[in-house]
Design goal:
nine-stranded antiparallel β-sheet; mainly beta; two-stranded antiparallel ribbon; 2 helices; about 180 residues
Length: about 180
């Protein structure tokens, strides 16, 4: 009888591990609680740096590029305010934190363009609304990891994951995986 239990134990463990691998992974949508965020990509090769979202300028039409930054420089301050719109699609507006005169926001444009434009005050412009789906979200609004960012109106996702790349919108199968970290 004891021998039967010993033989069944490995089978039971293997079954439990296999079943766990087939379970769907849970996702979350972050609540940054008004904290300015640094948005970045973790390089595939382990280096003491990240590829940070960097605006070309603060003016409408400016694009976002990925620039290599050391940890201290990248996380010194959050550059983006990621604000919930209150819309039924659970979307956010991504604004520049230090641009208070013009109120620019990231906008989905024609042909996959992803650039700054003047923010509409009502947050109802579909081209300025983005959903954010992450594998993990902190409860205090300080971080979120392994996130994809999509524009529901176009059905496209933010793509770009290497240093020097200009972010654009493209097929979600090629979506970038981004991290959010509250600025110091």
């Amino acid at each position: 009888m004891f021998r039967a239990y010993l033989l069944a134990l490995p089978t039971l463990l293997l079954s439990a591990l296999t079943h766990a691998a087939l379970l769907p992974r849970s996702t979350c949508s972050p609540n940054f609680q008004g904290k300015a965020q640094t948005i970045y990509v973790r390089p595939l090769v382990k280096i003491a740096a990240v590829y940070e979202w960097t605006p070309e300028s603060i003016f409408p039409g400016a694009h976002i590029t990925l620039q290599t930054r050391g940890f201290d420089e990248a996380f010194a301050q959050g550059e983006f305010l990621v604000q919930f719109t209150g819309q039924p699609d659970g979307s956010y507006v991504l604004r520049l934190k230090n641009e208070t005169n013009r109120y620019t926001a990231l906008t989905a444009g024609a042909n996959g363009d992803f650039a700054l434009d003047i923010l509409t005050l009502s947050s109802s412009l579909p081209s300025q609304r983005f959903t954010i789906t992450c594998n993990s979200c902190s409860s205090d609004g300080s971080s979120a990891s392994k996130c994809t960012i999509a524009n529901p109106a176009s059905g496209l996702c933010v793509v770009g994951s290497t240093t020097g790349a200009t972010l654009s919108l493209g097929d979600c199968s090629a979506a970038g995986v981004y991290e959010f970290q509250a600025g110091a």
